[in-house]
Amino acid sequence: MGRGIEIRDAHFPGRAPIDAYGDGGFRFADMSHRGSLLCLPSGIHGWDVTEESTLDVALFKRVLDEARDIEVLLVGTGQDIRRLPPELKIRLRDARIISDPMSTGAAVRTYNVMLAESRAVAAALIAV
Hints:
This is Mth938-like domain-containing protein. This protein is an alpha+beta fold. 21% of the residues lie in helices and 31% in strands. The chain has one domain (11-125): MTH938-like (Hypothetical Protein Mth938, Chain: A, 3-Layer(aba) Sandwich), CATH 3.40.1230.10.
C-alpha cells in the first residue's frame, strides 16, 4: 500500500539563524527549505513568494499579525533590491514596524546579526 503525500505548511517553531541560502532555498536549524521564508517571533514559516511576486499587503498578513513583537522587518527582495509598494510601507509603519528592503543575501546577514543581538527583528526572505 502506498502512502499519500501530506502537504503541510512549513513551520519551524523557534528562532534560528539562517546558515545558508541559494539554489532556491535556505538552510537553518539543521534543516533545509526550498522556497521563500518568513522569519517571525512565532517561528520560521514557508512563504509562497518568488522574485516575480508583487509585494502586496496580503503577502505580509502574518507579519502584521505579529506586529507587537516586531520592531524591524528586513525584506530580502531576491537578487536585486526592490522598493516596497507605498501601501505596504504605510501599513508596516502604522504597525510601528521599520521596513528595510535589501537583497536576500544582505537581509540574511543582517537578520543573523540582529537575532544574535536579541533584537525584535523579523525577515521576509525571497529565495534566490
